[in-house]
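Internal ticket - ligand job 346, NAP:
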Amino acid sequence: MALARGYAATDASKPLQPFTFERREPREDDVVISIKYSGICHSDIHQARNEWGNSVFPMVPGHEIAGIVTAVGSKVSKFKVGDRVGVGCFVDSCTTCASRDVDLEQYMPGLVVTYNGTEADGKTPTQGGYSDFIVVKEGYVLSIPENLPFEATAPLLCAGITLYSPLRNWGAGPGKKVAVVGMGGLGHMGVKLAHAMGADVTVLSQSLSKKEDGLKLGADHYYATADAETFTKLAGTFDLILCTVSAEIDWNAYLGLLKVDGTLVLLGIPEKPVPVHAFSLVPSRRSIAGSMIGSIKETQEMLDFCGEHNIVSEIELIRMDQVNEAYERVIKSDVRYRFVIDMATL
Ligand code: NAP
Ligand code: ZN
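stdout (structure tokens):
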């Protein structure tokens, strides 16, 4: 066991504070990673504040991890000391489940999430990336392309893959009209990735305040959802709508923006059930779906795609002691577009 330092939520109503905890002794298939940068995902806030009702405290959040390998176990073959690596939303999975063969381990019941979860031993709590180092099984560690600026790659490990996977699954590319709802951490990555795949990209944001940025990042069109005319003007337009909003919105109005056979994919997770009228779906054979992060194989594919296309996140680099203030700003949609903690400031 080695002592790690980090920041933890000790209770749903308290700010995060310095925290020391034990990491496991590295095993033969483990990689030890000195964490350099850790992104702040809105899911960190949902969980640190127990908004999903499944939080276990104390909790060290963080599942957008970029770091450097400092040691490897005797059976590790893919990584060596000094490599630039990433860790995303999960650090183990049920390897006996058939889904592993089709690279869908993120949907398996045995998934071990990076924090607020329990390791495969069934008892040790997992702790995340707002910390100085982490020990992860080789099979769950990703390679970060050398050409990308390191700090801005951390958000690819969750925000990047969460948008990449549905864009690929629903065939985004030339000739396809894709809308991204919410120009936040997830949303701005969706704009960059869909643009790089060749799709025609529209941002649907609450206001036009981030329009200039959206167009610069690759959006072809940008509309305010506060303007009711947006919904009449764009009715029946999109093949695919990726919704990153976790607030309650008028789902039927968004479904009305889909073409025949179009799909609305939920990425944000609203607390309440999503009310959908049959008339929003039936007359145009529309679908509503959900998607969660991506497999390890697909996450590596996404990182390589980002390396080829020079795609990283737009970030605000902060000190560790600014994390609580950053949470408040994320909640107010006041982040351009992802906070990343410089772990050297821990
Ligand atoms: P974020 O940076 O806060 O972005 C969310 C965006 O939603 C905001 O920037 C804002 O965009 C829009 N929004 C906020 N409040 C709204 C409201 N009341 N009405 C309409 N739009 C609103 O959060 P994020 O990190 O991108 O995460 C978004 C959601 O995805 C969270 O619920 C998170 O837990 C979830 N998530 C899911 C997965 C998955 O695998 N499915 C992975 C990661 C995160 P505008 O200012 O442009 O309107
Ligand atoms: Zn996340």
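Auto-summary: The two ends are 21 Å apart (CA to CA). The first helix runs from residue 42 to 48.
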